[in-house]
Amino acid sequence: MSIQSSLDVEFASGNNVKSRQITIIGGRGRMGQLFAQKLMAIGHKVNVLGQQDWDYADTLLSQAELVIVSVPIEHTVAIIERAAKYLSPTTALCDITSIKVQPTQAMLAYHQGPVMGLHPMFGPSVKSFSGQKIVVCSGRGDNSFQWLLDFMQSQGGELITCTPEEHDQMMVFVQATQHFYRLSLGVFLAQANIDLQRSLLMSSPSYRQEIEILKRLFKQNPNLCVDIILATEERCQAINDLAETYQRLAKLVVNKDREGLIREFEENKEFFQQEDNYLLPVTYTVTENKNTQFNRFH
Question: What is the pTM (predicted TM-score) of this model?
Answer without folding.
Answer: 0.82
